[in-house]
Amino acid sequence: MGLSKRVSSWSVEEVLEWMQGYHPAKMDTLQKAIIKHAISGRVLLRLKDHHLELLGVEAEEQQQEILQDVLLLKVQEEVHELNDICSECFST
Fold first, then answer.
1. In this structure, which topology does domain 9-90 adopt according to CATH?
2. CA pair distance 18, 1, nearest whole angstrom
3. Of 25, 55, 58, 68, which has the maximum CB count within 10 A?
């Protein structure tokens, strides 16, 4: 999966791919939940600890690890948005 694609446009399959790459130990639990609840990139960016608990990630340490990685995705998304704004400003 290319990092140039916006996280907010990720499909459920791309979220699964990302989760497999960053949190393979939790995939047994998360795979079914991600599919069942249609966790797209847009939804992934909005996850909180209580959502992860409902998805089957009960250990607070594991929740924090996932949320830290999601925070990095949020920063990546913000950088994309800022680049878009700057491109629009300089293209006129």
1. DNA polymerase; domain 1 (1.10.150)
2. 8
3. 55
State the Cα–Cα distance between residues 47 and 40, nearest whole angstrom. 11
pLDDT at 67: 97
> Does residue 35 register a pLDDT over 80?
yes
The C-alpha atoms of residue 90 and residue 92 are separated, in whole angstroms, by 6
Q: What is the pTM of this model?
A: 0.85
| CA–CA gap between residue 13 and residue 19 (Å, rounded) | 10
Classify burial at 74, counting beta carbons within 10 Å of its beta carbon; exposed 0-12, middle 13-18, buried 19 or more.
middle
Instruction: Tell me the pLDDT tens digit for each residue of 50-88.
Output: 999 999 999 999 999 999 999 999 999 999 888 878 877
